[in-house]
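User:
I would dearly like some help making sense of a protein record. Take your time, and here it is.
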Amino acid sequence: MRTTLNLDDDLVGRAKAEALRSGRTLTSVIEDALRESLSRAAAGEGTERFELRPFSGDGLQPGVDLDDTASLLDLMERG
């Protein structure tokens, strides 16, 4: 099937490099990557959740954002 996609330039460049390295077509590389991604999604890989539990204390302090590394380092240095 022929279709048109708009892909990120860097992503296409990496796919082309892989096609050249492996001696395959760009189409083959993209098909394999898409198959692998869809298989993982169907199998539920990467969707497992877990609960972060502190060793002691009352848990996460108010105002602490675990996604903000700079703020965490600042709080730990003040600590």
In short: Residues 9-43 form one domain.
